[in-house]
Every structure is written in structure tokens, then in C-alpha cells.
Write a structure and sequence with these properties.
The structure holds two protein chains of two kinds.
Chain A lengths: L20 E10 L3 E11 L4 E5 L6 H8 L7 E6 L2 E2 L4 H7 E4 L11 H11 L4 H14 L15 H13 L5 E5 L7 H16 L3 E6 L2 H7 L2 E6 L2 E6 L1 H7 L4 E9 L1 H9 L4 E6 L3 E6 L2 H13 L3 E9 L3 H9 L6
Parallel strand pairs in A: 3-8, 3-9, 6-7, 7-8
Antiparallel strand pairs in A: 1-2, 1-4, 4-5, 9-10, 11-13, 11-14, 12-13
Chain B lengths: L1 H31 L1 H25 L13 H30 L6 H4 L5 H29 L11 H25 L5 H14 L14 H6 L4 H13 L8 H27 L2
Classes of the chains: A alpha/beta, B mainly alpha.
The complex binds adenosine-5'-triphosphate and magnesium ion.
The site of magnesium ion has 5 residues of chain A, from helix 1.
């Protein structure tokens, strides 16, 4: 077996490639001509937590898919830790740990065995894989679940196990596709804490999300993605400053909210207004200064205002400034 | 230059280690599910042998051999071994894969192991073939002990070894083809449309060359890979009965093994990459 090991043709080396992930004009057009990813240029630095922020269908999973060898690009190039993912997919897989968007735990194996065999796949001996599995189960607070079947885990535990598995072989880059979608707030914070801790130890992380809080809280730099393109890229604070993003006035109210929204939208200086069951959100470049005008407009409305809050620009405002649409649907 | 060559060698070593670890994982799963493995392996062959070679002869309803020679038992035994291996290829490879590609995506972690996708598919064939061989070993004593009348077996060892190597690989590769092309909703259809006809018309209950009177059937079932596995066992175990020429059996088994492996690996790559 040792002689017949699978191998693939030589890939061009990339000397001087210092970033952990580099893409140049990376594109994917699916059969049928739909361009899911359209000329994406990224450079993720070593040790960085980098976020791809975008709404459903933005092309986040397709981008991660290309970087992790699962989607074959139709244009451009991608290099992960110095390895060209198209020319040398097997070698690229050695560099990366991947947490996909759905639960992909091996249901035929126990919690502990999921980690142990993952270590073996990545060339660890039995003793080393055992030790790593034990260490990571402890660190991810799963030690007492070690012998259980994976389908007995809660959503938060399953997600932690997937992250533990992806980190087991100490990959150069950890990819996470919407790691906290569907998790309760407590599990989300627990996962954020773990990711922060690994980041502090130097782990490079590339994650996707459509929660602006997540991008804001977790990522050092964020690329805002929509319809297959990167619209803006930088640290969250810079993004908010650069696009002259709006602050938000949140008006809680009862009664005819659409009427209230329509009146508020007519106020001079208001950029964008949207509504849900309990509040109307008003985006404006100098939100606080508009408060008196907004309140007098609200006075004539058929809705009863129960509260008002003014908040600073968020990445959500950045997204709206860039696309005229909201991040959430 | 040296660095690159070293890189290739280390990638090859990583691939070999991953391949081995994937085999260990499958072995672990089989060991865990040994009870179920045993039941699924034994039930059909045991029933076939029990009804046709014990119950029917015991109540005087034996079909008898062909041309007045031997007994139906000797006809059936090669067929039962062939069925056991073929079914195991489907149980070991096709059914889990249909699941893993359909409802669960649990193949994901194995696909992300540091080896080419075709090698992950090849591991599936190897692991399935190992289980096919194990199935044959489990079924052999059953076909030897259950029948009411003693078997008239004349083993040709080179032929038996050749069949025992090729038949499990062919069956497992066929399992890979079915596992990558069949959708979960179509599994019941797969049994009705593929597995039942293949097992009933696989020269399992009759030697292929005895079909001369139904010429169209004799020709049609040449497309059935089980025919060559059954005829191979027939030649290796009961050469006193009519059988296909051994060279034809060998050539067909090799061709089917190559064809199903190619198709299965292609199907696997298609399911994994987009
Ligand atoms: N295999 C495929 N064939 C054709 N189109 C596809 C395929 N996979 C994805 N798409 C399309 O490509 C676009 C981008 O999909 P992708 O899954 O990358 O988005 P996403 O940003 O991850 O969205 P989400 O937040 O919903 O996960 C979508 O419009 C999707 O319908
Ligand atoms: Mg996605």
C-alpha cells in the first residue's frame, strides 16, 4: 500500500506567497450559465479571522467550496497555504480544516471515533490520534459525550464537534460556512469564544455568515459579498466609516406600522426605512439629528409609538448603503 | 526541485496513510455492526439452500440435476455463493452511499481527507470487496452443511482463487455504480428493477449453457454480470456440469470489473465535485 499511494501531478509552487489564502478573479458559473461567483479577489493573512458577509445566495458557500476543492472554478485561481487548489486538490486538503454548512458527522461512529478516525485520515498514528481526540473533546466540552452516537448531540454540541474535528489535524486554514446559523444565542456565544481562543493561538480562520453581529464581533476583516461579487473589504470599523453608512433609529410602535413607516420615509434626510411586526427602522446619515422631525411625523400617524432607540452604523447599514437592500430577508 | 519532489513523495505518503485509515474506519463500522452484518449476509443464502436443497428433496420434490446427472444442490451451490457476494457488494457500498449522498452528507469528512477523490471511491470498492469475500467465507459452510444430499464438488483451486478475487471486486464496483447514480427515493425501485432480475436471471438456478432452448434469454442475460460470477464458481467447483468456456468467463469478469469500476469512480466524482 505504501508504494501504491495515490498521487497527483506536480502543481506549480508559489514562492513568495505569504498570505494564507489568495484568490485572483475566482469565478464559478454553474451549468446553465448562472454566475454564482464572479471574479472574486481575496487575500487572507496568516493568523487572521476573515469574514465573508452576504445574504442568501450571495455565493459564500460556492466560494468556500472552491477554496476547499469541492467546487471546480470556471475561472481565476485560488491558492491556500501555498498550494493551488485546482492543480493539487489532495495536497490542498492537507492544509485545511472544513466545517460545512450542514451536519456531516459520521453517524456510524461515536463522538470520540469521529475525531480519532479524522486524525488517522490525516496521517496520525493511533496514539497521537487518540491523544488529540481526548484533548479536543475536553477543550470543546464534549468529554462526557465521548462514547455516544453523534445523533444524540444537540445542535450546538454537533457544531462544536464539527469544529473540533476540523481543527484536529492542526490545519493551516480553518474554513467555517455559516458556523452559527440555526444555533441558539448561548451556543453561538460559546462557539465564538472557542474561535476567539484558537485565533489567539494563531489559527487562521475564514468564515462566512449572514449575521452582521457575527462579522462585527468575530472578524478582523470582512468582505461584503452580494450576487457573486465583493462589494467592499476591510475591518468592520473602517467599512462603517468609509461608506458613510447610516445610523439607525428604531421606533417601536403598536397599530398601523405601515402607515408609520410611510410617514417616516417622507422625512427629509431619511435614507431607507423597513418594518417588522414590532418596530420601524429608519436609516439616516445623521440619525440623532433627525429625531425631532421623525417624532413629529410619527405624531400624525395611526400607530402609537412606544419607544425610540438610536444606534450607531452597523455592517447592516454598510450593506444597505452598498446595495440598497437589507442583509436579511 | 528537490523540495517539489519531496512534496510529491509526502503527498503520496499522506494519500496512502489516508487510504489505509479509511479502510480501518470501514473495518471498525463492520465490527461494530457484526450482528447485523451476519444476519444480512446469511439470510438469503440460508433460505435458498434450506428450501431448495433440504426441504424440497426431503419431501420428494427435488428438481433433480440436468441430463439425469447430479442433483439440483450441485447446480444451486455456485449460484448461492455468487448471489451472496453480489448482494454484499450492494449492501456494503450502494446502500450506505445512497444514504450518504442523499439525506446525510456524512461522506464529507472522508472526501476531505488528503487524497484524490478517485482514491476515496477506490477505497469504497476495496472495502466492499473485502466484505464480499467475508460473505463468501460465511456462506460456504452453510452450503456445505445444510443440503440433504452430499455435494459433489471438485475444486479447481486456480479457478476458485481467480473467482474469489474478481467476483467481490466486480460486485463492490457495481455497488459503487448503483450507490452514486440511484437517488434515495428510488432504492425500492432499485431492488425491483435491478437486484431481483439480476439475481433471478444470473445463471444462479441453472447453468447458462442449458438455456439453449430459450435462445433469446440466453443471449439477453449475457449483459448480467452475475452470470459470469455464477458460471465462474460453477467451473471452479462443479466442472462436471456444463459451463461457459473458462476464458470467456475470465474475460467477461475482467471487462465488467473494469467497466463498473470506471463508471462507479466517475459517478462518485460527479456526486462529490460540482
Ligand atoms: N450546484 C449548483 N448548481 C446551480 N446553481 C447553484 C449550485 N449551487 C449553488 N447554486 C446557486 O449559486 C448561488 C450561490 O449559492 P451559494 O450556496 O454559494 O450561496 P450562499 O451565499 O452560500 O447562500 P446561503 O446563505 O443561502 O448559504 C445561488 O443562487 C444558488 O442557487
Ligand atoms: Mg451557503
Amino acid at each position: 500500500m505504501t508504494h501504491a499511494g495515490p498521487v497527483e501531478p506536480d502543481a506549480p509552487a508559489h514562492p513568495g506567497e505569504d498570505d494564507a489564502v489568495t484568490t485572483k478573479r475566482l469565478s464559478k458559473t454553474y451549468a446553465g450559465g448562472f454566475a454564482a461567483v464572479d471574479g472574486v479577489d481575496l487575500a487572507v493573512r496568516r493568523g487572521e479571522i476573515f469574514g465573508l458577509l452576504g445574504p442568501n445566495g450571495a455565493g459564500k458557500t460556492t466560494t468556500i467550496g472552491m477554496l476547499t476543492t469541492r467546487v471546480v472554478p470556471t475561472g481565476g485561481s485560488a491558492v491556500v497555504n501555498g498550494v493551488d487548489v485546482v492543480a493539487a486538490p489532495a495536497r490542498a486538503k492537507q492544509q485545511i480544516g472544513v466545517v460545512p454548512q450542514t451536519n456531516t458527522l459520521d453517524r456510524s461512529l461515536s463522538v470520540w471515533e469521529n475525531l480519532y478516525f479524522h486524525g488517522r485520515y490525516f496521517g496520525m498514528g493511533a496514539a497521537e490520534a487518540r491523544e488529540r481526540a481526548d484533548t479536543l473533546l475536553d477543550r470543546f466540552h464534549l468529554a462526557e459525550k465521548a462514547r455516544q452516537r453523534t445523533d444524540t448531540l444537540s445542535g450546538g454540541m454537533a457544531q462544536r464537534l464539527m469544529v473540533a474535528r476540523a481543527l484536529l489535524h492542526q490545519p493551516a486554514v480553518l474554513f467555517l460556512d455559516e458556523p452559527t446559523t440555526g444555533l441558539d444565542p448561548q451556543s453561538r456565544i460559546a462557539l465564538w469564544d472557542l474561535l476567539h481562543a484558537f485565533h489567539a493561538e494563531g489559527q487562521t480562520i475564514l468564515l462566512t455568515t449572514h449575521y452582521m453581529e457575527e462579522a462585527d464581533h468575530l472578524c478582523e476583516r470582512v468582505a461584503v459579498m452580494d450576487a457573486g461579487r465583493i462589494l467592499a473589504l476591510g475591518p468592520p470599523a473602517e467599512l462603517k466609516a468609509s461608506v458613510d453608512a447610516d445610523g439607525v433609529v428604531r421606533v417601536s410602535a403598536e397599530g398601523d406600522l405601515p402607515d408609520l413607516a410611510a410617514r417616516l420615509a417622507d422625512v427629509d434626510g431619511v435614507g431607507h426605512v423597513d418594518t417588522d411586526e414590532a418596530e420601524v427602522r429608519v436609516w439616516a446619515s445623521d440619525a440623532a439629528a433627525l429625531l425631532p422631525a421623525l417624532m413629529s411625523a410619527a405624531g400624525g400617524s395611526r400607530a402609537r409609538v412606544t419607544g425610540v432607540r438610536v444606534s450607531e452604523p452597523t455592517l447592516e447599514s454598510v450593506f444597505i448603503a452598498l446595495t440598497g437592500r437589507e442583509l436579511r430577508e | 526541485m528537490t523540495a517539489v519532489r519531496f512534496d510529491v513523495r509526502s503527498a503520496r505518503r499522506a494519500g496512502a496513510a489516508a487510504f489505509w485509515a479509511l479502510l480501518l474506519r470501514d473495518l471498525r463500522v463492520v465490527t461494530k455492526e457484526r450482528g447485523r452484518f451476519l444476519i444480512r449476509t446469511v439470510s438469503q443464502p440460508l433460505l435458498l439452500v434450506f428450501v431448495f436443497t433440504y426441504v424440497l428433496p426431503s419431501i420428494g420434490r427435488d428438481f433433480g440435476g440436468f441430463d439425469g446427472e447430479g442433483s439440483f444442490t450441485d447446480i444451486l451451490v455456485p449460484g448461492v455463493l455468487a448471489i451472496a457476494i453480489l448482494i454484499k457488494g450492494i449492501q456494503a457500498v450502494a446502500l450506505p452511499l445512497v444514504q450518504e449522498f442523499g439525506y446525510t452528507r456524512e461522506i464529507e469528512d472522508r472526501v476531505m481527507s488528503p487524497l484524490p477523490v478517485w482514491a476515496v471511491a477506490t477505497e469504497k470498492i476495496v472495502a466492499g470487496a473485502g466484505q464480499g469475500l467475508l460473505a463468501a467465507a460465511i456462506v460456504a459452510p452453510i452450503v456445505a452443511l445444510v443440503p440433504a444430499e452430499p455435494l459433489q464438488i471438485q475444486i479447481s483451486w486456480p479457478a476458485l482463487v481467480a473467482v474469489l478475487v474478481l467476483a467481490p471486486i466486480l460486485s463492490s464496483a457495481l455497488g459503487l455504480v448503483l450507490g452514486t447514480y440511484v437517488e434515495p427515493d428510488n432504492v425500492p425501485m432499485m431492488f425491483s428493477v435491478v437486484i431481483l432480475p439480476v439475481t433471478f436471471l444470473g445463471a444462479t438456478y441453472f447453468p447458462w449453457s442449458e438455456l439453449g432452448d430459450i435462445r433469446w434469454l440466453q443471449i439477453a442475460i449475457l449483459a448480467n454480470p452475475l452470470v459470469y460470477i455464477a458460471e465462474g464458481f460453477r467451473f471452479a467447483l462443479t466442472p462436471q456440469f456444463p459451463h461457459m468456456p473458462p476464458a470467456a468467463i475470465l474475460a467477461a469478469m475482467l471487462a465488467f470489473t473494469a467497466g463498473t469500476s470506471w463508471l462507479g469512480i466517475r459517478g462518485f466524482r460527479r456526486r462529490v465535485l460540482s
